[in-house]
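Hi there. Long-time user, first ticket. I'm pasting a complex I've been working with (about 416 residues overall). I'd like to know whether the download I got is complete or cut off, because the file seemed smaller than I expected. Thanks.
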Amino acid sequence: MADRYLRLTGTAPGRFVARRLGLPQPAALRRWSPRTPDLPGPVLRLAAGDTPPSGSGPYGAVVLDATAVADPAGLRGVHGALHPLARSLAPCGRIVVLGARPQDGDLGHAAAQQALEGFVRSLGKEIGRGCTVQLLRLAPGAAADSTLDFLLSPRSAYVSGQVIEIGPAPQPPAAEGRTALVTGAARGIGAAVAETLARGGAHVVCLDVPQAGDALAEVAARVTGTALALDITAPDAGGRIAAALPGGLDVLVHNAGITRDRRLANMPADRWETVIDVNLGSVLRTTAHLLAAGTLNEHARIVGTASIAGIAGNTGQTNYAASKAGIIGCVRALAADPAVRGRGITANAVAPGFIETAMTAAVPLVIREAGRRMNSLGQGGLPVDVAETVAWLSDAASGGVNGQVVRVCGQSLLGA
Ligand code: NAI
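Hi, the file is complete. Here it is re-exported in full:
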């Protein structure tokens, strides 16, 4: 499962050989740890049209306010501000461009604000050295603090080239004493999500199939949480979850998922049915039950787990990609539902790319190697990268982020 190439190019001789042969040289990403809680330098904030301070840096991040760019000529100010800074960013630094929603009926504004998307995605592909680039589209009164905290930190190490819309939000509720449920928590991404939410102070109920037994109990003990051995596709799953959560639920993370790959021509109905039911059907049923039963508290956060396969499609994965695209439809519909919105509940999805887990360790070697390298950061992500993103979307202060699909894929070429 280990990425031997990344390890090799992390050594001086390995780097030398890779450079001589013109092979990719992925950077060692700076991830959050108690020893590296911050970016590797200060944050510079400026607006399009400003002249950046000369000879300064290296910066840990640059935040460029481009919300006032209202026509193509205004894009000159984006180039003018960032061109001199492109080389002043520290390794694993961040560029965050703040934009506005393109205005219908104002051709210049719509074109210029949409242009920022192409700009950000291109810069993400060329900047290198483990740096990331994102566009935040701010609605009037947008509550962007928790999103900026996330993006301007090592917690967003494997998120790049994303366009995220932020709206206004009601006053965030108290962040203490929250209860979270994570499905598929016995291993992989789910276990990392449980650990990361527990690190943020939540009591985590860890759900997995009864066969996961010891592994599930171990994760629950490690996060000082509770184990709930339950097949999420069981007809009474919603009721059993509600019964296990008498104090209600503040964070619901639908993470459990399976693959049963075959080309459509070779795919029997049972492979189709199982994947759709575990990955999508159960998500709809449990969410509906927990909403109707009042188990989801006011300002609860629902996070679905999609996949870049659900955005780009993938050979041999018509069932899986359909289920993951369905998750995107599900969170968008929930986010738009006045009954859900009215209670301050948000619904978003993460769409992981290639993440180093048991699921991807089972992928044939050549496809696995391609999955690792075909992204702007030149490496696979770790379960914690998805977990940090889930934790940001689950934050009590993230009420302005709703109906968003955030890829955790190092800016994969697939579906970009
Ligand atoms: P994994 O296979 O390592 O873990 C999945 C967990 O879900 C397992 O513990 C399993 O027992 C549990 N689970 C499966 N069916 C269940 C059911 N019916 N009821 C309760 N629990 C059940 O998978 P991994 O890699 O950690 O993936 C987690 C999620 O992320 C999945 O939804 C997967 O589709 C998604 N994903 C993963 C990617 C990757 O590169 N690893 C890429 C894109 C999406």
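A couple of notes from our side: The chain is about 40% helix and 20% strand. Residues 183-184, 186-190, 208-209, 212, 231-233, 255-258, 278, 305, 307, 352, 354-355, 357-360 surround NAI (CB under 6 Å).
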